[in-house]
Amino acid sequence: MPPRSRKIAIMGFRSVGKSSLTIQFVENQFVDSYDPTIENTFNKNLKINGHDYTLELIDTAGQDEFSIVPQSYSMNIDGYVLVYSVTSKKSFDVINVIHDKLLDMTGKSHLPMVLVGNKTDLRMERVVSQEEGRRLATSWKAAFLEASAKENQKVVDIFHTMISQTEKGDGSDPEKGNCVLS
Ligand SMILES: Nc1nc2c(ncn2[C@@H]2O[C@H](COP(=O)(O)OP(=O)(O)OP(=O)(O)O)[C@@H](O)[C@H]2O)c(=O)[nH]1
């Protein structure tokens, strides 16, 4: 069987760790320096449940509540990894705005999504609780994970969960998209 192609956009506020999660997953390394992204594409092949997948990961530029989401991010994208930092309430607020903009742009009531609270290693700096993250994901009928790109915690799970979400269709049946992990 030919590999299944999945195009995934990684989105969120500036500096939440979108590039770090992507690079940790694709290249198994963590880069401590901060280099703002304009847009990068990464490719990775992997096998899940006996199926081969070719992933195209679009690591997008950080957005704030006023940014215009490029039209290209609403077309031909199979799923979205929406990232905030557990150390930034602002990034948590912004992710909700990005979520709503994506629904508006696509005209869908639900999209395959994984909500990710990153930087769990910064325990003393946490300002967004796991419960708050889980509640937001549940309200979207999205999957939810907390992760650390730095400590390589749950990073692989994010992309495996994302693929599972894309297998559930385009959300025409919202009940099917409900999968909350912790
Ligand atoms: N402690 C800690 N730092 C992290 C983690 N993930 C990313 N960082 C750091 O946070 C900063 C921003 O990380 P990036 O991966 O560049 O963030 P980004 O969301 O891609 O940023 P933009 O391109 O501006 O949108 C860098 O200094 C990273 O080293 C994490 O899990 N833990």
Automatic annotation (TrEMBL):
<comment type="similarity">
    <text>Belongs to the small GTPase superfamily. Rheb family.</text>
</comment>
<dbReference type="GO" id="GO:0005525">
    <property type="term" value="F:GTP binding"/>
</dbReference>
<keyword id="KW-0378">Hydrolase</keyword>
<dbReference type="GO" id="GO:0003924">
    <property type="term" value="F:GTPase activity"/>
</dbReference>
<keyword id="KW-0479">Metal-binding</keyword>
<dbReference type="GO" id="GO:0005789">
    <property type="term" value="C:endoplasmic reticulum membrane"/>
</dbReference>
<keyword id="KW-0342">GTP-binding</keyword>
<dbReference type="InterPro" id="IPR020849">
    <property type="entry name" value="Small_GTPase_Ras-type"/>
</dbReference>
<protein>
    <recommendedName>
        <fullName>Small monomeric GTPase</fullName>
    </recommendedName>
</protein>
<dbReference type="GO" id="GO:0046872">
    <property type="term" value="F:metal ion binding"/>
</dbReference>
<keyword id="KW-0547">Nucleotide-binding</keyword>
<dbReference type="InterPro" id="IPR001806">
    <property type="entry name" value="Small_GTPase"/>
</dbReference>
<dbReference type="Pfam" id="PF00071">
    <property type="entry name" value="Ras"/>
</dbReference>
<dbReference type="InterPro" id="IPR005225">
    <property type="entry name" value="Small_GTP-bd"/>
</dbReference>
<keyword id="KW-0472">Membrane</keyword>
<keyword id="KW-0460">Magnesium</keyword>
<keyword id="KW-0488">Methylation</keyword>
<keyword id="KW-0636">Prenylation</keyword>
<dbReference type="GO" id="GO:0007165">
    <property type="term" value="P:signal transduction"/>
</dbReference>
<dbReference type="InterPro" id="IPR027417">
    <property type="entry name" value="P-loop_NTPase"/>
</dbReference>
<keyword id="KW-0449">Lipoprotein</keyword>
